[in-house]
Amino acid sequence: MAKKGKVTFDQDRCKGCELCVSVCPVKIIEIDKHTINKKGYNPAVVNEMDKCIGCASCATMCPDVVITVEQE
Predict the structure, then answer these.
(1) What is the Rg, in whole angstroms, of the alpha carbon atoms belonging to the chain?
(2) Among residues 20, 32, 44, 61, which one has the fewest Cβ atoms lying within 10 Å of its Cβ?
(3) Cα distance between residue 69 and residue 16, in whole Å
């Protein structure tokens, strides 16, 4: 059975740099074009959380440490 993960973002600290989007091997992270956070950026979000494999590539790449990855 494949590993499952859960990714959470500190939405208000995310600056929408898209580095997490570029490294996600299953391509489930995107920039939320409909939301603007307290800093004035469009934050990253996960669509299709059920496809997350918990690899933590996104958290490792994030320069602002706004991503938490948990494995189920």
Answers:
(1) 11
(2) 61
(3) 18
Residues spanned by the domain of 66: 5-71
Number of other CB atoms surrounding residue 1 within 10 Å: 3
Q: Are 12 and 39 in contact (CB under 8 A)?
A: yes
CB neighbourhood size of 62 (10 A): 22
d(CA 72, CA 5) in angstroms, rounded, equals: 6
For 20-34, the pLDDT digits (tens) are: 999 999 999 999 999
Give the number of other CB atoms < 10 A from CB of residue 38: 9
Query: What CATH number has the domain bearing residue 22?
Result: 3.30.70.3270
- Number of structural domains (the chain) is 1
User: Would you tell me how many other CB atoms lie within 10 Å of the CB of residue 24?
Assistant: 21
What's the predicted TM-score (pTM) here? 0.89
